[in-house]
Amino acid sequence: MSRIATTGEVLQLIRSGEATTRAEIGRVTALSRPAVTHRVNELLQRGLVVEDAEGPSTGGRPPVRLRFNAAGGVVAVASLGASRTQIALCDLAGDVIERTDLVIDVEEGPDAVLGLVMDTWEKLLEGRGPLAGVGLGVPATVEYARGRTESARVMASWTGVEIPPRIAKRFPVPVLVDNDVNVIAMGEHRGVYPDQDDLLFVKVSTRIGAGVVSSGNIMRGALGAAGEIGHIPVRDGGGVLCRCGNLDCVDSVASGTAILRTLRERGRDVETLADVTVLVRQGDAETMAVVRQAGRWLGEVIASAVNLLNPSVVVLGGDVAEMFMPLVSGVREVVYQRSTQLATRSLKIERSRLGPGAGITGCALLVIDHILDPDAL
Ligand SMILES: [Zn+2]
């Protein structure tokens, strides 16, 4: 390190395992011995680091090892869905301490929903602490810096709402808010693909959205609208009018809503996406063909994204990813045809492995990365 290392940077070295004794920290940072002691003491006092006495014996007194203390604080997180909200407390490593689900319609508005979420955190927090931060994922575009919901996909009553000040009134800690798909993309990257720094997560549910991890970070764009791929039009979509007013947006032809509509038009008795998944598992030829065609249209948009971003892995999540085989075969067919050879040489297209917990994990990481950031400490 060329300049004087801060306390936050010393914590970073301990967390990553790069330097875990005072002597190693001194060597890596070139800090003087008193300066190392000062920073380590500060971290010990804040409970972010603990001392482990055991170490490899070299004859003399073993050096005291320093270890990041994941139990040094808790973060409160919530992943808001259209009809179901997951709420949890996590430790500073992002592991869930306690989790509960709330059945509440987000359209009841920010006052009702956030009030209930905060009441739930308060109950979960009894006897625990200290609370270090709060993280939320919401099914809307979020102007990340201000935590303000922009154009809400399903949360019309939330448009323009700045969430952090409402939370900080009751919980005066850092509050971070991001789009739900971004949060899941981060959860997938850190939880399942920690070695893949370039990952594209595509959520195919009632709507289609994407989260882009580029060089290990979420790419949000200027206002937080990066990854909103649902309204990119496809070729030969058949002239379907999208709710945005354009024709043949991928959302209007390949989303779960579109798959249900197509099957019903063909006289199939399907209520929900779970019904469609059952038909796919039974190998129903017509259903498989419909899902595969949706996969091809989705593949058109993914192929362009692959050319633009060169991810090493594309992860498909959401309810429609439950119909993975026909969906991914359609996606692969088009992506390998239309993306450049270099971009697809080692490209993997996988199914989300984190499942419904991905949002919670992602929210926890979002807030932990912020509060433990060397510049924030
Ligand atoms: Zn559209």
Structure, explained:
This protein is of the alpha/beta class and 377 residues long. It is 39% helix and 20% strand. The chain has 13 helices and 14 strands. The protein has helices at residues 7-16, 22-29, 33-45, 110-125, 163-168, 180-191, 250-254, 256-265, 273-281, 285-309, 324-338, 341-344, 358-371; strands at 49-52, 65-68, 74-80, 84-91, 96-103, 131-138, 140-143, 148-152, 175-179, 199-204, 208-214, 217-218, 313-317, 348-351. Strands 5-4-3-6-9 form a 5-stranded mixed sheet, with helices on both faces. It has a 5-stranded mixed sheet with strand order 12-11-10-13-14, with helices on both faces. A two-stranded antiparallel ribbon has the order 1-2. A hairpin with a 3-residue loop joins strand 3 and strand 4 (84-91). Helix 6 packs across helix 13 and helix 10 packs across helix 11. The chain is globular, with a radius of gyration of 23 Å. The mean pLDDT is 91. Bound molecules: zinc ion. Zinc ion binds next to helix 7. Residues 231, 242, 244, 246, 249, 251-252 line the site of zinc ion.
